[in-house]
Design goal:
This protein is α+β, with helices and mostly antiparallel strands. 56% of the residues lie in helices and 13% in strands. Strands 3-2-1-4 form a four-stranded antiparallel beta sheet. A hairpin with a 5-residue loop joins strand 2 (63-68) and strand 3 (74-76).
Length: 142
């Protein structure tokens, strides 16, 4: 194998490693931002009985990894978030969740309407910052 071919193979291997590290960093950023947005949404959800908050669930690629708590926090299941997640979903399973979310004319003693939408909008910047941080960190390591 020529020196050029050898160097090209080494470069391809280095690029593959960098791509893997960036992918891992972005996946971790996605999960971190999802937990932050989830906790924000749960804490914003009205809490008459706490059932709406407890119906919140975060899934990564369809696998549940965190659930809402009455106190407005998110509890990570099994102590850790999954690795390699490509899609994260936050949902509220209570049958009245959509109605409570959309009715802006109702005053709540605790929480607010549009709890999921407002958390997602405010968390968007956090997600962008986390992904930029992951990319920047990986580039600094090289």
């Amino acid at each position: 194998m020529s020196e050029f071919s050898t160097r090209l193979a080494e470069l391809e291997e280095e690029l593959a490693c960098i791509a893997d590290e960036l992918e891992t960093g972005c996946e971790e950023a996605l999960l971190s931002a999802a937990l932050q947005i989830g906790a924000d949404a749960v804490s914003r959800a009205p809490a008459k009985t706490g059932a709406l908050r407890e119906s919140a669930q975060l899934t990564a690629d369809g696998v549940p990894f965190a659930v809402g708590q009455k106190d407005g926090s998110m509890k990570v299941l099994n102590g850790a978030a999954p690795r390699g997640a490509r899609q994260v979903t936050l949902s509220f399973a209570a049958p009245y969740a959509a109605k409570v979310h959309e009715h802006t004319d109702v005053a709540h003693a605790v929480g607010e309407s549009k709890f999921l939408e407002r958390a997602a909008l405010s968390g968007r910047e956090h997600l962008i910052r986390e992904i930029k941080r992951a990319i920047h960190t990986e580039r600094e390591d090289d």
